[in-house]
Write a sequence for this structure.
């Protein structure tokens, strides 16, 4: 089963290629495609595609916010200094009470002793980091799926190109044979025209298929982060999965993200009590005063405990609790839907795999029979038993049957990939 979200990167790549092709001049040349194996293409995409880099930056941002919230309940130390210049000394009863030049400095050490709300905010920020990391894994999964689908498409387009080349060669040989018969007075001009028309159609089909190969290679190049087209290399090997395990969906990154979001929302609800807790902060202030005054010595220190108890806030905390409870309920529903969809994906993928295998067997048999029919039609035409319309019809049927078999192979590969995706076994962690 192909999830719409998984097709989004592919669609964007194809659209961007269409824009590039529209602006390319008629004399532009397509660079040579770089051959990559399936595993190399996936690995390079995960290393170079901007979507992964953006997701990594989201993780870094979440880690920065975690450090910021953690600092709220750690000790803080602040240094302060001031120089004051008066127009003259301030005198009282012949005694200087404020000197013309004054220098003061202090250090303020503040330590939150009881701050439950700050503590749980740090815990929530830690949950956000975990969610961001799981989100990065989900982005990597989506990207790897897109690469796999386009890679399979390139393989299929190459197979279709081979079929088109074979069909063109067959049509060209038939055209040559028909023309020679006509020139020798053994055939009709209608036969020659039909053979030439079929050869021209086969050439057009081959050119179209070649263009489709270029488009697929360019799309693969965009996904792997290359500045040139990328081609396939080696044997395409997809992971095999047993679909009879009930807990396979738990391996999927989207399910793990949904479960982690539920756990984070539940923790927020469980820790709502901290909004009613007091805050106790201790502070120590050593200071320096030059010159000293009757009320302030040259040096000294001051210690303080400050207790803050929230009594009434106009209903803000109760409103926040309702919001948190609503968010938890929504995430439970989202998890339920995600798991249900994952289980459905696995069932559909398993059924598609079985049906695709049956369709491929039937398509291969049909292609084999069409080849036999073409051989018999060609032999009958050479013996003069029929006109070449039977041969042309047999050529088209053979080409269509071979194309159908190739597309059935593509469907089977996609079905194998769908099973691995639905079970959470692709990409491997």
């Amino acid at each position: 089963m192909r999830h719409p979200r998984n097709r989004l990167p592919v669609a964007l790549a194809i659209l961007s290629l269409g824009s590039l092709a529209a602006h390319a001049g008629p004399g532009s040349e397509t660079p040579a495609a770089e051959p990559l194996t399936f595993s190399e293409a996936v690995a390079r995409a995960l290393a170079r595609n901007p979507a992964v880099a953006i997701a990594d930056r989201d993780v870094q941002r979440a880690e920065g916010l975690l450090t910021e919230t953690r600092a709220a309940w750690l000790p803080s130390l602040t240094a302060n200094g001031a120089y004051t210049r008066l127009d003259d000394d301030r005198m009282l009863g012949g005694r200087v009470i404020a000197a013309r030049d004054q220098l003061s400095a202090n250090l303020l050490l503040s330590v939150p002793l009881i701050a439950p709300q700050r503590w749980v905010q740090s815990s929530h920020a830690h949950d956000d980091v975990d969610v961001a990391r799981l989100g990065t894994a989900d982005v990597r999964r989506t990207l790897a799926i897109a690469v796999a689908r386009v890679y399979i498409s390139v393989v299929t387009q190459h197979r279709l190109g081979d079929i088109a080349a074979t069909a063109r060669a067959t049509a060209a040989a038939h055209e040559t044979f028909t023309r020679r018969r006509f020139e020798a007075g053994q055939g009709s001009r209608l036969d020659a025209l039909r053979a030439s028309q079929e050869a021209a159609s086969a050439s057009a089909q081959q050119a179209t298929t070649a263009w489709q190969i270029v488009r697929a290679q360019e799309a693969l190049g965009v996904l792997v982060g290359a500045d040139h087209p990328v081609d396939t290399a080696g044997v395409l090997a997809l992971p095999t999965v047993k679909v009879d395990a009930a807990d396979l969906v738990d391996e999927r990154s989207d399910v793990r993200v949904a479960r982690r979001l539920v756990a984070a929302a539940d923790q927020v609800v469980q820790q709502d009590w901290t909004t009613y807790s007091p805050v106790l902060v201790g502070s120590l202030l050593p200071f320096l005063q030059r010159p000293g005054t009757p009320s302030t010595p040259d040096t000294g220190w001051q210690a303080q405990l400050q207790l803050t108890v929230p009594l009434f806030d106009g209903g803000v905390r109760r409103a926040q609790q309702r919001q948190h409870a609503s968010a938890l309920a929504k995430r439970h529903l989202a998890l339920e839907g995600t798991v249900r969809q994952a289980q459905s994906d696995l069932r559909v993928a398993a059924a598609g795999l079985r049906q695709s295998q049956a369709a491929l067997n039937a398509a291969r048999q049909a292609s084999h029979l069409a080849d036999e029919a073409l051989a018999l039609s060609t032999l009958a035409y050479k013996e003069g038993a029929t006109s070449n319309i039977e041969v042309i019809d047999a050529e088209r049927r053979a080409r269509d049957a071979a194309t159908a078999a190739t597309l059935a192979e593509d469907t089977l590969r996609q079905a194998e990939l769908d099973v691995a995706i639905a079970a959470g076994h692709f990409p491997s962690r």
About this structure: The chain has eight helices and eight strands. The domain at 33-77+114-278+316-422 is CATH 1.20.1600.10 (Outer membrane efflux proteins (OEP)).
